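Much of the work behind modern protein science is quiet bookkeeping, done one molecule at a time. Below is the pair of lines this work produces for a single protein:

***
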Amino acid sequence: MLSRRILLPAAAALAVFVVLQTAISAELLNAYQITILTYACIFVTYALGLNVIYGYNGQFSLGHAAFYGIGAYASALVTKIVFQGNPLSFPLALAAGVATAAAIGYLIGLPILRLRSDYLGIATLGFGIMVKVLFDNADKVIPAMGGARGLTGIPKLTSFAWAFFAAAAAVILVRNLIYSSHGRAIVSVREDEIAADAMGINTTKYKTLAFVVGSGLAGLAGGLYAHLYVFLHPSNFDFLKSVDVLMVVVLGGLGSMTGTIIAAVGWVFLLEGLRIVLPQEFLDWRMVIYPLVMIIVMILRPRGLMGGIELGPLKPGKVVRRLKAALVPASGKEA
């Protein structure tokens, strides 16, 4: 029998989906609003992947957008070239995006995960730049990829339902992984890699596992993204896109699925809200507003919005205590 800890969040997620899908079916939301909701779900999946790598495993990555792009291009090529736009190929295309991103994550992770801290960040940054350059020049090897002109002709197959349930599956996967014995080993590497190694934990294995899972989730998000906007350009996966998702994970709270979900959805709504509110000549000011928001949050909440706290089906008293703990600024002492 499934426990309340699983059934209640699942029921809540299903209720949210039913409400939003009913609004979509009744045409209460226009096409633009539906696209934003869908993209918010995609961004949740994308951010959860980095949260596994950085939030739970403590591996500083600045190249997450590379795996996002790898999944996007791989899945788009499957539907466009292999299956000629057949809608039935969409699950296979998403699986191809996940598998390709995860496989490359594994191959890249083997050498670079020997590095730590800033050195690892620089290595992943270099990988991300390399992938972007490859996308720019890929048409010389595979003309269909478009190179610097971009990849066009992708069928529009991503719906709100696909994006929502992909995000829900990502949450379930991350939750089950982190609360397993493997997850505890992954977190132990973040807390103290030397102590974890001394206790007999194969730190290389669990760093690689976290990197592969995070890369695979980014590949899934990339596949959904490709079939939502039906056009891919190398600039969609540059260094700034890696910084965007890194900011979301830090704002939400490292090692907090709840915080990542809230921050990811809020980030997308803030992005599009400013696009609507600001006049055209002031759109570039968004690049000032985003860092300003992050600075304010980091001052008020040094550990992020949720500070590593998860909300779940707890007793009301516990929920109140956890919310108070999340809202009260950290005292500076280590727990």
In short: Confidence is low (pLDDT under 50) at residues 313-320, 330-335. The chain has 13 helices and no strands.
